[in-house]
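For the sake of transparency, this paper describes our internal protein records without simplification. An entry from our holdings is shown next, in its original layout:
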Amino acid sequence: MKRRLMDILACPIDKHYPLELYVFEEREDGEIVEGLIVCPRCLRFYPIRDEIPEMLPDELRNLREDLKFLRKWRDKIPEKVLRDGKPINLSSET
């Protein structure tokens, strides 16, 4: 995903703009390989996997995969998302 995409992205649930970007892995050309997009208003998070931002509504998300993503990047994800993120979070594990 290119950083400039953040200039046009809004939360698909509450339409909030701007969103927060957390980069976990980036190629030399600046392409974001792994990261997280967070809506600061509703605290929904959207993973970036294999350069693709997965901005799906809650009912279309794979919550098992989202939990796996949160666990993998736990050290780089803001505490507010780990604790209160939607549609799923790690609050029961901490």
